[in-house]
Structure formats: structure tokens, C-alpha cells
Amino acid sequence: MEIIKTDVAIIGAGGAGLRAAIALAEADPKLRIALISKVYPMRSHTCAAEGGAAGVIKSDDSLDLHFNDTVGGGDWLSDQDAVEYFINEAPKELTQLEHWGCPWSREPDGSVAVRPFGGMKIKRTWFAADKSGFHILHTLFQTSLKYPSIQRFDEYYATDLLVDDGRCQGLTALEIRSGEMKQFQAGAVIIAAGGGGKMFPFTTNGNIKTGDGMALAYRAGTPLKDMEFVQYHPTGLPNNGILLTEGCRGEGGILLNKDGRRYLQDYGMGPETPVGQPVLKTMELGPRDRLSQAFWGEQQKGNTVKTPWGDCVLLDMRHLGEKKIDERLPLVRDLCISYLGKDPVKEPIPIRPVVHYMMGGIHTDIQAATRLPGLFAAGECACVSINGANRLGSNSLTELLVFGRRAALSAIAHLQSHQVPSSDAALAAKAKASQNRIQALFDKSNGTESIAGLRQEMMDTMEANVGIYRTGEGLAAACEKIAELRQRYANIALTDKTHVYNTDLMQALELGSMLDCAEAVTVGARDRKESRGAHQRLDFTARDDENLLKHSLAHYHPTEPPRIEYLDVVITKSKPGVRDYSGAKK
Amino acid sequence: MSELQKRQIQLEVLRYNPETDTAPRYQTYSVPCLEEWVVLDALNYIKDHLDPTLSYRWSCHMAVCGSCGMMVNGEPKLACKAFIHEYKEGQIKVEPIANFPIERDLVTSVEDFITKLASVKPYLIPKEDKPVSAGEFKQTPAELKKFKQYTLCINCMLCYAACPQYALVPEFLGPAAISMAHRYNQDSRDGGRDQRQEVIASDEGVWECSFVGACSEVCPKHVDPAGALQQVKVASTIDWYKEHLMPWMKK
Amino acid sequence: MNSKPYVREVSKTTWFLSHPRYKRYMAREVTCIFIFAYTFLLIVALARLSQGEEAFNAFVQALRSPLGVLFNVAALIAAVYHSMSWFDVTPQAMPIQMGEEFVAGNIIVNAHYGAWAVVSLIILFWGM
Ligand SMILES: Cc1cc2nc3c(=O)[nH]c(=O)nc-3n(C[C@H](O)[C@H](O)[C@H](O)COP(=O)(O)OP(=O)(O)OC[C@H]3O[C@@H](n4cnc5c(N)ncnc54)[C@H](O)[C@@H]3O)c2cc1C
Ligand code: SF4
Questions:
Q1: Last residue of a domain, one of B54, B80, B108
Q2: Do the chains contact at A109 and B2, CB–CB below 8 Å?
Q3: Is residue A375 a contact partner of residue A220, using CB atoms and an 8 Å limit?
Q4: CB B165 within 8 A of CB B173
Q5: Check: CATH 1.20.58.100 for A427-568?
Q6: Which residue among C6, C92, C93 sits closest to B16, beta carbon to beta carbon?
Q7: Right CATH number for C11-82 from 2.40.70.10, 1.20.1300.10, 3.30.420.40, 3.30.565.10?
Q8: Pocket of ligand 2 contains residue B153 by CB under 6 Å
Q9: What is the CATH number of the domain that holds B145?
Q10: Cα A448 to middle of ligand 1, angstroms
Q11: How confident is the model at residue B102 (pLDDT cuts 50, 70, 90)?
Q12: What is the pTM of this model?
């Protein structure tokens, strides 16, 4: 097996991975950096982000306000020291991107423009029309081309981390083009492999978001944190889950039920605000968890619109007018017309909540370090946690940058004392074991389970039982089912036994990642007997700060369900309070 | 609302596996498609229900990641934006994107494009040094609009598939790479044009372009690469005149 | 290495038959032959003029032949097609930004047609 020696290996070339790579290259041009990604960097799902990235820049704003919004938005499950660090770094990172050429939308005077976003008290979301993530990703990718020390391994699929002597010293990855396994020997590894929304059938997430990074760390023995918190975005296209950004509401779009009522006022987010004059942090600019829950309420009351794609509510943007829609939301208009045949300039758009983001992920500390020495994580696959029980829109893109860079700096610090591999032979043996695991899939001739079939069963289970509102019963059933699927996974059949671009194999491996993550989600959710942020239980409707103001940590077991451990949340200056998104006081 | 319409579609898909085939062949699949589907949905149906060995790239399903460029009935298209209802005949031919070597089935080798993109220095080379702590560079909405369109390129390479010059002269830098150089050249914050000029104003650069215009016709993001290339030609011609006929104009 | 990329050959001679847009392009390119030929004709005219009145008259006479007329008509049609196909793409090559907005493409195209008409009229009246 070819051994590729490097100082830092990064798994994932989305926003977080690219930011980490650039930070490494800038810090020390002599560092050897391996940037490993299962897709070409610009295909990473950061490209799909539309709305924008939050960071305090305007004079009417303050770091404290951003802090309060984030901590309250996260239902006090965020670690406040991490949030504070994040908020401080955010404006610097966004400005840095500007210096790298990101085409942020502008005010007439040439300064960067900001737009309102859900749950934010002040306008602070930097945006590039409604293609913010796309521009961030391409700016980072193109900037990374400046640095010869960033060596890219495009279309390499990471299969296992190599751990020896109690620290992470590399990984194995399949070169998808040849089907050959490679061993990466590294002083430090950063995982930036994105989220895992694809374990659900109806999601804004792209095909690549299969939780691989989380599963890599999890299987290597470092825990996943707060996995039960899965964010539904309130406004997805009903037929395929394509996202209509929160910017739609930020710019003044309103939500209506079948009777044309702005139903959010019936869910503690009223009173109604004037149409086309959105008021921050209330009504349509409430947080995502609350808005998605309100949809569920309308569905229970029979107030939704029936469509061939199921129950919907309506997102009405007609009053914004064609000019504003074309200037601020051109992609949204294009997506609605192309994929639904409806023009938001002329008619309201049917929408429904859609799985969007995982608050949980690889447990890291504020330095982006996991519990496994030498292993760092950043981006959606990590959980620091700044997002707590519910991420505020536009905090994630900023998080990629802040903690992508942080992970790079921590990796450099780790290298100071850990440059030399513990034992070449031990690492090679582990790499060989990883290769054998894949080879076994090829050698096996008696597999009976279909990959697509198991995947469908997993998705159905997640959708039925781990949605916006959950019950103890449903979650118990889901845990049982996912455990069963994990067992049956051992019996999958690979149809394609060739090597070049074997996407059948990729799908098999991705399914394995998703099942591991799905189990952490379901077990975490079953054991969290309270309602907080995006985790809402019909049998435990209140938040339980006394017992559960805690992060959950899921520890992997190859055949059993995970063991769940709890960890105190770091509270520095904001005591848990009431999340009030009514407009009455304003 | 009415029920969703379904239609049986014959998908004729190019297959090529270097380990078992010496040349590409075609395989036809009969797929029950919803009218609202795109070709990518039909491929996913094949992969999940008919033939797990079919290989192709895709991710976002919203025409922004640029992975799923293919030839659909001979036309370069994003499979996620090629709508079934636009193909009335019930027969759709799907092939890998033209002008790139076929690695396997619908997957092509895109290294040539990536190398060319990297060669034009597609990043901001600032006119003036300014530390991050000094805040952002000012840029008016008009200055932004001047280059905005060229930032929209998703690197899908459909323009390369449509370009006969690229087909005939593989050394040609091509539409998207030159457009990206133009994007930075036009950015009010950038001062790197001279550095890029050497590559893009060469024979394999913009002068290989004969303005067929096909790139702009197929570009799914309306980048108008053909326009960008002509503007680069105009600017390069002016450079030449300044240098040779009016040397005093050069600083 | 298992990879063995397959390269599809492109015909150097018939590629343009594969798509209508390539044929359109070829039509634009081919029409320039007529423009070249017409330019050549003008040079011949000059040469004849320099050779004296008689030579020039013979040349004009030749132009009046059916073949000459046919060539002139064909060259005119080709020149018109050629010019129009270029006018239509001028907004791409020479966009004009005024304030924030770009001047609409059809204004630039129409301005070309306008200028063409004016120049043609001037030549026509000046010639008469
Ligand atoms: C539609 C949509 C809109 C959004 N809009 C916003 C927004 O407006 N504002 C905001 O703040 N956030 C938004 N988000 C969230 C945010 O975009 C994501 O959380 C973020 O982009 C994730 O970035 P990342 O770098 O962590 O991962 P990604 O960009 O997903 O990249 C993951 C990388 O890991 C690689 N990878 C994965 N597995 C492997 C493996 N096994 N081997 C090798 N490489 C691997 C992939 O190839 C890829 O390069 C949005 C999300 C979605 C889905
Ligand atoms: S210019 Fe257009 S067609 Fe060419 S790669 Fe970019 S988006 Fe695709």
C-alpha cells in the first residue's frame, strides 16, 4: 500500500477544510498539508448555503447582542466560552474572506451589507445575494490555489483513522479513481467532513452529506455530542426538499396557512407585524425550531394546504416585488420556477419543514480538539458547541471559518511534540486491517441485503420517529430498528466488484456511516427526556434544566447501541431563561 | 391539486468500465418517471432499483455544485436541471460530458479543467496591502456588478463540452478558466491583471477562441463566458496598440 | 492502476455537422469569404482604374454580366448576414455600464443598426 507522508491531513474540503488548509499554509509554508476529499472541493455542500454568515460589523450592533441571540437561540445548551470566542473571531474571519475576494453584497457607500435573519435581534448577516455559501466556498477554493504546500487529494474517500499509542496518526483512504487504498501518515488529522442529513429522506442536504466524518471519529473511539438535535428548516420546496433561504423571510416574505392567516401569531410569535416590514426576532423572523414546530401545529389543526407532495403552508413574497426579488433572491426565484413551476413574484410558494442541519457532531473543546490526541474537528461534523439545541441561521458558515482556522492552529501546536510516528509497523498493520475490511466486501459472495433497500428502511425510520416532535414510544421503536439495520448491514451485497469509480462501494460505506450516526441520534433522543430547542418530545414537553442542562456524549460500540454519557454545559454569563419571540415587548 | 403525472421513459445510457470494456456501449433502462423529475432522478432510480453498477457524479440536486454535467440528447446539461417533461419523445440519451476522457460510465476525467483553472491565478491579488484589522475594502454596488456575473461559474464544464475549439485544440485554456481570470481582472480590489495576462493572452489562451458562442448558450448560470473572452481580446488588443504604437502610454 | 480513460475522437473535418449551433457558426465564418472576395474585387477595380479608362470600362462591363450581378447579389446577402451576426453579439463583447446597470443589449445592437443605416444613406446620397 502506498504511504503518503504529511504533517497535517485534513478530511474534507468544504468551507471548514479549506479554511483550515489555508490557515496551515499561512502559518508555516514548510508544513506539508494533505487536503483529502471525496469530491472536488467546489462540489462540497457549503456551495448550497444561500442566506449568509453572521458577524458583528455595524455600529448599532455589539458582540454581547450576538452572544445573547446565539445562546438563547440554542436554548442554553451552547457552551458560552465557545460562543464568546466564536463571536469575537467572526467579524475578522468575514473580513478576511472579503480580502480574499468574496463578492459580498454592498451598501451604496461601498461597505458590506447585512440582512436580517431568524432569531437575530440586529441585522448582522453578511450575504452575497442568495448564494453566500457558494461564494464562500469558491473564494476559499480559489484562494487555496495560491499555496503550493496544500496538496489536494481530490476524490479520495477516507475509510478509517489510524490510531496508535493513544493518538491519531493518519488515516486510510480509497482513491476513488483507481479503487486503490492509500495510507496517509500524519502528525495530526483534522476532520471537516460535514453533516449527515442524508440519513433522512427529505432534506436540504446533498448526496455527499452522509456523516462519514462523524462516523470516522466515533468508530475511532472519540464520542459524538448532542446528536439528538437535528434542525428542520421551515421553508423547503415540498417535492424535493430544496431550500428556500431564511433570507426570503428576512427580506419580508410571510408565512400563511390555508386560510391566508399568518399562523405564527398563534404560536407565541405574535402579534402580527406589518406585511413587508419584518420585525427582528418575532413572527417570520423567529428561530427555526419554533417555526418548524408551528407548522406541525397547523398540520394537527388541519390548517395546512393539501398538495400532491403532502401538507404545506405558503411562503408569500409577492409584495417584495420583482426588482427586489431579482436583486436579493435570484436563486430562490430560479429554484421555485424551475423545480416547482411557480414564480414567487406572482404566487405564494407551498413549502414544508425539511431536515437541514445537525447541531451535534464530534465532541471538541474550544480549541477544536477531540478527546483523541492528534485529532481535531471543525465545521458541521464537529460540535464545539456554539449551536446548542438549535442553531441560528447564518452562524454555521461563520463557524466553519472560525473553527476551521482554530483547528489548524491547534494541529500545529500538537505537531510541536508529536511529529514522529510511534511505530511505522503498527500503523501499517492498522492500515492493512482497514484495507481488509473493504476487501471483505468484495470477497463476500453470500450477501443478501441490498444497499438501497437498507438505506430506505433507515430513512423511513428516521422520518417516522425522529422528526420535529418525538415520543418515547417512537424513539424506542427507532432505536430497535436502527440496531437491527446495523446488524443486517453486516450482510450487505456488493453488486459492483470492479475498482474504478465504484460508486456502489461508496454507497455501501456511506450507508455504514449513516447507520452509525443514526443510532447515536436515536439513542440520544430516546434518553433525553425533556424538550429543548430542536428536540421536542410530546411525552416530556418541558425543558429540564435541573437534570439535563447537559451535553450528551455517545460512545461507539461495534455491535451494541452506544453508551451515553452526560457533560455539563459551560455557562459563563447567561443563566438559562425564557426564549421569548413574541413581539409584544418590542 | 392534481395527482403527479407519470411516464415510462427509455433511458439510453452510455456505459464504459475500463476493467471489462474496451470501448463504450449503450444500455437502455425503462424508468417510470414522474413528469416533474429531472434526468438525475431517473439515474438515481436506476442506481437504486435497476442497476447498482451505474456510476455518475452528483451531489446538491439544485444546480449549484456543478457535479452532474452530462450530454442529454447530445446537449451539455446539468442532469439535475434537465427536466423530464422537456423530452416529449419518451426516449432520452445520456452520455458523459463531451470533450473529456471517460473514466467510467458517466464519469469523466476533469483534471485538465482543474489545472487550467489554477493556471490563471483565480484569486484576488490585492491592489493595495491592507491588514484585516483595517476593515473591508470598499466596493460600490456598481463596482460589484461589473464582475458579479463572472463569479457565478459553478465549474460544471458544460462550456468546455460545447466548445468546438476545445474539442479540436485541447491545449485551449477554455471558456470558464478565462472567464474566471476576467472576473478578477474586473474586480475593483484587484491589481493582478498583468500577472494573469501572460497566460490568458497567449495563443492557447484567448486567441484560440473564434467566438462560436456555444459556451454562453449552454452555460446554466448565464455567466456568458463568450462575452468575457471577447472583452479580454478587446483589452489585450488595446494593450498591444499601447505598447507598440503608443509606447508613451505605458507607465 | 486500473484506470484507462477512453477518449472520444472528434472529426477534424465534419465536427460542425453535429449541432445546428455549429452550422450557424460556420455560416457566419463562411460568409466572410464573400467579403474577402468583394474586397479583392475592389482592389482589382483600383488596378483597372490605374490602367486607364478603357480597362476600367471593360471591368465595369464584366460586372454587368449575369455572373457579375449574381456575385454582387450573393456578396451583398453574405455581407448583410455576416454583419448582422456580428451586431447581435456586440453587447457581449462591448458591454456598457452606466451607473450600476448595464445598458440593455438590444439598445447596443439597435445603435449599430442605426449607425449602419445612417452610413448607408450618406453613401447613397453622396454617391448620387
Ligand atoms: C441548503 C443549505 C443552505 C444552508 N444555508 C446556510 C446559511 O445561509 N448560513 C449558514 O450559516 N449555514 C447554512 N447552511 C449550513 C452550512 O452551509 C453547512 O453547515 C456548512 O456548509 C458545512 O460545511 P463543512 O465545511 O462542515 O462541510 P461540507 O461543505 O459539507 O464539506 C464536507 C467535505 O467533506 C468531504 N468528505 C465527507 N466525507 C468524506 C470522506 N469519507 N472522505 C473524504 N472526504 C469526505 C466532502 O467531500 C466535502 O469536501 C446551509 C446548509 C444547507 C444544506
Ligand atoms: S462558465 Fe458556465 S458552463 Fe462554463 S463552467 Fe462556468 S457555469 Fe459551467
A1: B108
A2: no
A3: yes
A4: no
A5: yes
A6: C6
A7: 1.20.1300.10
A8: yes
A9: 1.10.1060.10
A10: 33
A11: very high
A12: 0.96
